[in-house]
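_Full entry_
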Amino acid sequence: MNRKTLVLAAAMGLLAPVLAACGDAESGSGSGDAIVVGTTDRFTASEEEGLAPLDPAWAYDVGTWNILRQTVQTLMVQPRGDGEPVPEAAESCGFTDAGNERYSCTLRDGLQFSNGDPITAQDVKYSIDRALSLEGDSGVFALLSTIDTVETQGDREVIFHLKAADATFPYKLSTPVAGIVNKDDYAQDKLREGFDVDGSGPYTMKSEVKDGALVRATFTKNPSYKGVLQTNNDKVEIVAYDSADSMGDALKDGKIDVMTRSMSPDQIQKLANATDGDIELVESPGLEIRYLAFNTKATSVKDKAVRQAMAQVINRDELVAKVYGSQAEPLFSLVPAGVTGHSNAFFNKYGDPNVAKAREELEDAGVDTPVKLTLHYTTDHYGPATKAEFEQLSKQLNDSGLFETDTEGTSWDKFRPAGQKGKYDVYGMGWFPDYPDADAFVAPFLDEDNFLNSPYVNTDVRKDLIPQSRRQADRLNASKTFEKIQDIVADDVPVLPLWQGKQYLAARDDITGTAYALNSSSTLQLWELGRGVSG
């Protein structure tokens, strides 16, 4: 069979998703009536990475957020098909002043945690105050940094008083760090360690842990759930695999029903080219970006001429073509294409790759060449092609004669904390946006308490431009401000954007709802999945 479907993505104005039938496995899964979803995300609890990976006050990566979004309810949520967030645990929410500094929500009547305890406005205040006071090392609390105080009126009204205008605040209330938790399960003064999660979301969760890692999460429909999400199944399981190949074998053998991130480029290509069988590949536009991060205090890259020379030498077109093919696009800004406020700031400044210009920049700055660098990358978080990507980056830099680089791969549980602690001069990172707005590609990298714990500071960006962008309720009006920020980033190069990726999901053809199982921010929406009849 050969099926293709196009669906318009409402928020981004992009075409999504594309479905192509392929494969030759038998329908079904090895887990009875549960829909089984495979992933290569790793969920570990370690001293290096943190012992509380699933606490909303700590979790800050796409994998852990995809678990929390199923289980911990937020006041707001991204709607089906994207767009501005809509009330979820709340019955209604909105700014109550002209300056976008006072935001009020009224809770749905009869909300309760999965254990039956009622949810009140005081629980919302407790949860937000807790996340802010704990200041988890992951930096996720910074999403709530514009909050000054949280006030409650009665049992159902919550009022957020902001330090400054923030038109993006409704989006932030849709992220897991703003999840509503029970004080009996989540202590005020410490993070909840381990892999247990309790909330009021569409599912309850049971964890299966082996050698300090979550290997299987079973989500069961929560009969007490009250919210806007429609749940199309009674049970879903997420199973973690060590590699894309083993995950692919599990799909082929019928052990899982759905395969999510991260598939290899070869897997995606084979699935896309197949014309018969009962496995579907779902392709949709994505807002995932990849970039190089710099410790701007490190001796090797402290001089911005070195970072500018790298920006001048790296050939994104060649990198994407040789490693990812049609599955990614070159990226010339922190803000990806499809998001209001995007500009090609790096191309505007550097143009096509030019070794002669890079050499001149280094000579003018008095930098001796070749500049010796190690390019660090994670071996098990962004997919199996990451190694090839960094080998290609290293080759491009070395072929210029201006750099002498090697590469070093490290597992995510050690890689992530090492980057935050400044142990790497140059390292590769990926980013899935917290919400589909340019602010979510700027503030996490450049604002105070940023995600990277970067030593780079630009006062104009922090004190003027980011606050200015948040005062614009019409996000189109914020575009000029975001363009200024992107121009500053292109000049200073605290980070170097590389490419923007599409997103993929493969599923057996009796699984329904796959077109909406991922939104533009790569949120896994398990409630959309159902089981139909294979064709």
User: Anything to note?
Assistant: The chain has a mean pLDDT of 92. The radius of gyration is 23 Å. DSSP finds 14 helices and 22 strands in the chain.
